[in-house]
Amino acid sequence: MSSPPCCPLCTRTDVSHFANANDVEYFTTPDTFSFYRCTGCDIVFIHPMLFDRLNEIYPSNYYSFHASEADSIALKIKNFLDDRAFRSITRQIPGNALSALDVGGGSGWLLDALKRADPRVTHTTVVDIDAGAEDAARAKGHEFHLTPVEGFKTDRQFDLILMLNLLEHVPNPAALLEKARGLLKPGGRIWIKTPNFDSLDARLFRNRSWGGFHTPRHFVLFTRESLIRHCQEAGFEVLQCKYTQGAPFWTVSAINELKLLGLADVSANRPSLKNPLTPFFHLAFAAFDFARMPFSKTSQMNIHLTLPSR
Ligand SMILES: [Zn+2]
């Protein structure tokens, strides 16, 4: 069997069991996975970590491989908020021609939105493991590198690096942060979005395959405090770290509950995201999270990083 659980960040083995969970979204494996918490790092990590079986755990119908021009109301609202967020970050970066990198960016749909939001963005690069996204990305003018980010090589440095819903997918987030530091121009910005396991829905569904576990595709999860600390330890200045709505996690959790009650049909061929209730749940839970955000910890976080001056 596999080796004992060991924290992927500090390598301690005196970790505590946090939860068990299954793939309740895509059903890529029938196995039950354990999540452990490292009290030293205050992170939660999956065990075993299937970093050498990515082809199995990311099925061909995986959402980010197709998340392009979907036209639901929820996505339109999300796009509007993304545009606003892009403008608020790029206006902090000086220069007439900006270069941007989207790690895990698929066909480059976020970079398209970024270019719309700020016309100074003239060079765009995507790094992704999805071969199916390559042609679409190149057709839209993005440089495309078909590789896990760990193997990405370039002479270029970037003004803006996007790592949205990515950090939690890699076996060694500290190594990724270090790599990103080398890819960032002085004065540039990194925008990371990642789950927060210290949230209401994480507590409610902790032992019911919480959507934020995204089992077995999320390897490492943070809290706001542990995310900030690890980014600082990687040599970054943290400009801001804010909670944002966790509707996707609520929705997966809620649909799994309906399935357990025999009220929803979810399977490998009918993944959670394709359920007819999903758009409704996304809207309702996003509204719920936005309403309580001023006074509660929601289950996703946006953090903006830069390099310390000198
Ligand atoms: Zn640790």
Short recap of the structure:
This protein is of the alpha/beta class and 310 residues long. It has helices at 54-57, 73-90, 109-117, 134-139, 173-183, 200-204, 224-233, 247-260, 278-292; strands at residues 16-21, 33-38, 43-47, 98-103, 121-128, 143-146, 158-164, 184-195, 220-221, 237-244, 300-306. 42% of the residues are buried.
Structure, described:
The protein is an alpha/beta fold and about 300 residues long. It has one domain (about 15-305): 3-Layer(aba) Sandwich (Rossmann fold), CATH 3.40.50.150. Helices cover about 30% and strands about 25% of the residues. It has helices at about 55, 75-90, 110-115, 135-140, 175-185, 200-205, 225-235, 245-260, 280-290; strands at about 15-20, 35-40, 45, 100-105, 120-130, 145, 160-165, 185-195, 220, 235-245, 300-305. The strands form 2 sheets. A 7-stranded mixed beta sheet has the order 6-5-4-7-8-11-10, with helices on both faces. A 4-stranded antiparallel beta sheet has the order 1-2-3-9, with no helix packed on it. α2 (about 75-90) crosses α3. The chain starts with 15 loop residues before the first strand and ends with a strand. The mean pLDDT is about 90. Zinc ion binds near residues 7, 12, 38 and 40.
